[in-house]
Amino acid sequence: MKKYIVIFITMIGILLITNTMPGIVSGSVVVDRVVAVVNNEVITLSDLQREEALKKRDTARDDRLVLEDMIDRKLQMAAAKRAGVDVTDKELDDAVADIMKRNSLDTAQFSVELAKEGLTLEQYKGELREQITLSRLFNKYVRSSVNVDEAEARAFYQNNPKTYSLPEEIRVRRIFLSLPDNATPGQADAVKEKAESVHARAQKGEDFTRLVREVSQGETASQDGDLGFMQREDALPEIVEAARALKPGDSSSPFLCAGGYNIIKLEEVRTPVVPFEKVKVEIINTLYEQKLENTFRSWLQALRGDSHIENRL
To answer: Does residue 174 contact residue 264 with C-beta atoms inside 8 Å?
Structure first.
């Protein structure tokens, strides 16, 4: 990538996009003032304005939200210092070298690209050092304490059946009596009369499969008329409509479809579910991300509770 340099550090609530960082926009001079105090450190109005410029693409954010994020970062950096979590100069130089290598840039080209975005190499390295530090802190105090086992995933799967349900399927058995090509009215009436007679026998309790074997025509007859499970949208509209009025075990009145008279029996209605093994990894990942975020928020709240914070906005 020649124009923009993008760096992502994977952690909840921490995402730095360096290609959106512009230089200081010229305008009226504002006397700097303190907008927040975090323990023994301050956040000034110019700090806040720079942060807002950094996040200029996120129009939904207001001053207070940006400032709260800055306070959170100050708290985390102080926690990192107390815990001895740091990034050495060599580690930082190696990270920058890797970024340049992946973007096919030498030092001069990299500096030019940063300058286009209003950054010096030292400013960029300072931002990168902070993000790597925060990432390591996150791993130490948040990620390391989060785990999701298969039992949790299975419980979630069982408690959310609708999430993993597939479209409803019907299984029907069919008797088909074909109409002759160019059938005369008399021939059509004869086939209809036979179909009604078969239906009457089914209504009296005769075994439907036996009736299929006795009178049904066409390729489904060799399968005892079983059309198998199918989603309603995949079946012939006439069959779907006839099945709609039936309960499992009921048979329909004769109806015209596919060049003949049909009688169907609704064998079964089911709502299949995606097997647990197919979604296990997806569920574990979902639960893991939820736990990760909740743990991070709780940890951050604990940091706030142990600190002196003044928000002066």
So the answer is: yes
Q: How far apart are the C-alpha atoms of 105 and 112, rounded to whole Å? A: 10
Read off the pTM. Answer: 0.62
The DSSP secondary-structure symbol of 3 reads: S
Tokens representing residue 263 in the block: 């009688």
Mean pLDDT to the nearest integer, 285-313: 91
pLDDT above 70 (res 41): no
DSSP-assigned states of every residue in 213-268: HHH--SGGGGGTTEEEEEEGGGS-HHHHHHHHT--TT-BPPPEEETTEEEEEEEEE
DSSP state of 57: T
Under DSSP, is residue 139 helix (H, G, I), strand (E, B) or coil?
Answer: helix
Written as six digits, the tokens of 230 are 């199918």
Which structural domains are found in the chain, ordered by start? 18-147+287-311 (1.10.4030.10), 166-270 (3.10.50.40)
Q: Is residue 35 within 8 Å of residue 46, measured between CB atoms?
A: no
Percent of residues, the chain, with pLDDT higher than 70: 81
Residue 19's CB is within 10 A of a number of other CB atoms, namely 15
**Higher-confidence residue: 251 or 60?**
251
CA distance 217 to 211: 11
φ and ψ at 85, to 5 degrees? -85, 120
- Token readout for 179 is 């109409």
**Arithmetic mean of pLDDT, 159-168:** 92
Could you report how far apart the first and last alpha carbons of the chain are, in Å? 39
Tens of pLDDT, residues 205-228: 999 999 999 999 887 777 899 999
Max Cα–Cα distance, the chain, nearest Å? 101
Q: What is the average pLDDT across 273-292?
A: 95
